């Protein structure tokens, strides 16, 4: 669960960047609502961890982006990347029986968002492709 929380921290940071580079309009609104959704999911994981007696992983002061974001198209690409990363974190979390339903729902949401932002997802999002 800590890995999923860490991925949500990174997504919240990343969507701040995404929103800064998208022009006003529907895409920026999508980024804004997705930012809020990731904040809510992050906060939820923090509550679950704290209720279980664990110390939630803190957000880093900053995150290295996988590439330079300089305009709308690269911001959209970053959003797709962030969601794809989240699918991997949530696919791993589905192995925990007590969290399987929550993790599967989060995996589904991230996969749908990744597709929305233009990611080319494998047949089973979140799982490594077998070469």
What is the strand and helix layout of this fold?
Layout: H1 2-21, H2 26-51, H3 72-93, H4 100-116
Helix pairs in contact: 1-2, 1-3, 3-4
Which descriptors would you attach to this protein?
131 residues; mainly alpha; Ferritin; globular
Structure overview:
The chain has four helices and no strands. It has a single domain, classed as Up-down Bundle (Ferritin), CATH 1.20.1260.10. The model has no long low-confidence stretch (mean pLDDT 93). The chain is an all-alpha fold. The longest helix has 26 residues.
What would you give as the CATH superfamily? Answer: Ferritin, core subunit, four-helix bundle
CATH topology, by name, is: Ferritin
How much beta, percentage-wise?
Answer: under 5%
Largest sheet: none
Low-confidence stretches: none
Shape: globular
Kindly name the structural category.
mainly alpha
CATH architecture: Up-down Bundle
Secondary structure: helix percent: 55-70%
Distance between the termini: 28 Å
- Could you report the average pLDDT, rounded to the nearest whole number? 93
How large is the radius of gyration? 14 Å
Overall number of domains: 1
The overall strand count is 0
CATH class: Mainly Alpha
């Amino acid at each position: 669960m800590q890995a999923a929380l860490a991925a949500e921290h990174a997504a919240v940071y990343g969507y701040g960047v995404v929103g800064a580079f998208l022009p006003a309009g529907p895409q920026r609104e999508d980024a804004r609502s997705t930012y809020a959704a990731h904040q809510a999911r992050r906060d939820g994981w923090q509550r679950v961890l704290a209720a279980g007696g664990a110390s939630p992983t803190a957000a880093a002061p900053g995150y290295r982006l996988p590439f330079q974001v300089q305009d709308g198209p690269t911001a959209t690409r970053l959003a797709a990347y962030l969601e794809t990363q989240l699918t991997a974190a949530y696919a791993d979390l589905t192995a925990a029986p007590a969290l399987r339903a929550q993790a599967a729902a989060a995996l589904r949401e991230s996969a749908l968002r990744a597709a929305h932002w233009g990611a080319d997802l494998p047949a089973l999002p979140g799982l490594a492709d077998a070469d």
